[in-house]
Write a structure and sequence with these properties.
This protein is α/β, with parallel strands linked by helices and about 250 residues long. It has 13 helices and eight strands. The protein has a four-stranded parallel beta sheet with strand order 2-1-3-4, sandwiched between helices. The chain has a four-stranded parallel beta sheet with strand order 6-5-7-8, sandwiched between helices. Strand 7, helix 12 and strand 8 form a beta-alpha-beta unit. It is globular.
Length: about 250
């Protein structure tokens, strides 16, 4: 850990914790390289988004309420996920409206940031010293794009990756078809959306598809694998932390 004057609470999210811990480590380490003191509470688990989106509001209230309590007084909260950041910043307002947690939810929303947003807009960082020899394209995850207005931050960081050629992705703002439970409940529609996304990705002839949410990364990586495509899908933090080889 660093001894920098700025301190943040890092909320890695449940899917990163359980399936992609290297993404969380990459994101946290890159913050520390900027002189930020990174703290991760042991009892920080889930934002409650899955239950909320599935219509289980009572369960979401309990899960998110616990998260709200854990994050009280913890300073800026940074997440490597536009989806979970959007849940806290925009949907906690709806979930906790007219409840004893309403004021705390509003207060937390004002100090919650997605990871690339925090690097670029708050810390003023555009170059983290990353290198990648190859062609890269970027997919905008829906929640980050539409709730938080993300996109330019990731591209700013990628354009400073030494050796990389950043290629525009046709339909970069179109959904990959994951959408949490949507991919299960509406499997045929989800599959059709993914196929369109994969066609766009392969048309760029890139080496790497980069995105800011591991949910989209999972969906796209699975589709590329089934096609036996040479294109890989990785999280932005892994690329910037030089955890992806050029191959």
């Amino acid at each position: 850990m660093t001894t920098g004057s700025r301190r943040i609470t890092f909320f890695s999210t449940c899917i990163v914790d359980q399936l992609y811990p290297t993404v969380g480590m990459a994101a946290a380490c890159l913050l520390e390289q900027q002189g930020v003191k990174v703290e991760v509470p042991n009892d920080l688990l889930c934002c409650g988004q899955m239950a909320f989106n599935a219509g289980f509001r009572d369960d979401a209230y309990i899960i998110a309420g616990r998260t709200l309590e854990v994050l009280r007084g913890k300073g800026d909260v940074v997440l490597p996920s536009g989806s979970c950041a959007a849940m806290i910043r925009h949907l906690y307002h709806e979930l906790f409206a007219h409840t004893p947690f309403a004021a705390a939810a509003e207060e937390l929303a004002h100090r919650t940031y997605e990871w690339s947003e925090y690097l670029v807009d708050i810390l003023g960082v555009t170059d983290v010293g990353a290198r990648f020899s190859g062609r890269i394209t970027y997919h905008d995850a829906c929640h980050g794009l539409r709730f938080l207005g993300l996109g330019k931050q990731a591209r700013t960081l990628l354009h400073h990756v030494a050796g990389a050629e950043v290629v525009p992705l046709p339909g970069c703002d179109q959904c990959c078809g994951f959408g949490g439970l949507f991919a299960i409940k509406q499997a045929s529609i989800s599959t059709a959306m993914l196929e369109r996304k994969l066609e766009a990705i392969e048309s760029t002839k890139v080496d790497l598809l980069v995105t800011g949410d591991v949910s989209c990364m999972t969906q796209i990586a699975g589709g590329l694998s089934r096609r036996q495509s040479a294109i890989r899908a990785r999280h932005l933090a892994e690329v910037l932390a030089n955890m992806v080889d050029a191959r």
